[in-house]
Specification:
Layout lengths: L3 E5 L6 H13 L3 E6 L4 E8 L8 E9 L2 E2 L10 E4 L4 H5 L3 H12 L4 E4 L3 H6 L7 E2 L6 H6 L3 E2 L4 E4 L2 E4 L5 H15 L4
Parallel strand pairs: 1-2, 1-6, 2-5, 6-7, 7-11, 8-9
Antiparallel strand pairs: 3-4, 10-11
């Protein structure tokens, strides 16, 4: 039986930051489950940069079904968790079921991959204090307020926590996360 990885997300998550790790980890032989506030078809978004804009723009992205609701997740069944970005983390950090799930991964020192705005979720469970992380660069003050040392780098690995800035960093992010996974929870 393949090791299970949990991917936590919701509406307005960045399409690439959900689907790239979902497919890459499945390709590697892991069984990936997408969890959201409820079982439903999720609406993802695409963030990109347009000339003349001071920040990114948002367009509708892909839709994808959630495999299970946060309330159905049994964290002990999963060897790792992936936390995509987009706008979803802004509201998901208020979900008590998700906070309980994420805290269990940190308490057990299981691998955690976070990208872009995903660290807003790990900050909400005090999972960043004393750690080195990266995130979408505009989140540097949030990461520092959460007690983390922020690094503006493609990927930052701190023990079992692997973080990246945004979807252009996917290859480095998954390469390093897979290195951690192969050591902690290899596919046999």
């Amino acid at each position: 039986m393949a090791p299970k990885i949990l991917l936590v997300t919701g509406d307005a998550a960045e399409s690439l930051e959900v689907l790239y790790p979902y497919q890459r980890l499945r390709e590697e032989g892991y069984d990936v489950h997408i969890a959201a506030p409820e079982r439903k078809k999720l609406q993802f978004v695409v963030h990109d940069f347009e000339p003349g804009f001071d920040t990114y723009t948002e367009k509708p992205g892909y839709t994808w079904p959630a495999d299970l609701a946060f309330a159905e997740v049994e964290p002990e069944q999963y060897v790792a968790v992936v936390i995509p970005g987009g706008r979803a983390p802004e509201y998901l950090r208020n979900d008590p079921e998700l906070r309980k799930i994420l805290k269990s991964f940190f308490d057990a020192d299981k691998p955690v991959a976070q990208i872009c705005h995903g660290p807003l979720l790990t900050a909400a469970v005090d999972g960043l204090r004393g750690r080195n992380v990266t995130a979408y660069p505009a989140l540097e003050p949030d990461m520092q307020a959460a007690g983390a040392a922020f690094r503006d780098a493609e990927v930052v690995v701190d023990g079992t926590l692997v973080s990246s800035r945004a979807w252009p960093d996917h290859s480095g992010w998954m390469r390093e996360f897979l290195t951690v996974l192969r050591a902690k929870a290899p596919v046999t």
